Amino acid sequence: MFGSSKSNRESQLVVDALIGSQVVIRGDVEFSGGLYVEGRIHGKVIAAEGASGATLTVAEHGVIEGEIRAQVVVISGRLDGDVHASEKVELTPSARVNGNVHYQVVEMNAGAQLNGRLIHASSPVAALPAPEGEAAEGKGGTAARRKLAEAMA
Fold it and tell me: 139: alpha, beta or left, given left = phi > 0 and alpha = psi -120 to 50?
């Protein structure tokens, strides 16, 4: 009555290149369109500059040991490295990620494992302000020491 329980992602999956389960690539991979990885990649996997809609899908038995950069990243397998997704990251229940995930939108299903940090792409890392006492006097805190010496005298 309410339709299939599967996500829209499966019906919209476009695969322009497939790395089969028996394939091992040692080196960086640059792609555009849809890349589906069932094998192993030892190196960076990066969407070509200016490639719109670049989607990387790592299948349940797929393994990538290196950094990933793409618009949309769907991980069902294992990743040892950081993810940089300019649009969306999806971690399915079988995903195993050892690295940081930089995202705009993240979908993390129950069962997915992440050993790293989730970092929202639009939130800049700001330095914390110095404590009030140290901001004016510097790191030495000489004014505070003077006050203490005067109080003790």
Answer: alpha
Dist. CA 133–CA 142, nearest whole Å: 10
What pLDDT, in 10s, does the model give residues 49-94? 887 889 999 999 999 999 999 999 999 999 999 999 999 999 999 9
pTM for this structure?
0.72
Element (H, E) at 9: helix 8-12
Can you tell me whether residue 137 is helix, strand or coil?
helix
Are 115 and 100 in contact by the 8 Å Cβ rule? The answer is no
Other Cβ atoms less than 10 A from the Cβ of 7: the count is 13
Strands of the sheet containing 78-80, edge to edge, are: 24-26, 40-42, 63-65, 78-80, 96-98, 113-115
Q: Which residues pair with 69 in a beta bridge?
A: 46, 84
Q: Measured between alpha carbons, how far is 37 from 93 in angstroms, rounded to an integer?
A: 17
Distance of CA 91 to the CA centre of its chain: 10
Q: Residue 127, by phi and psi: left (phi above 0), alpha (psi -120 to 50) or beta?
A: beta
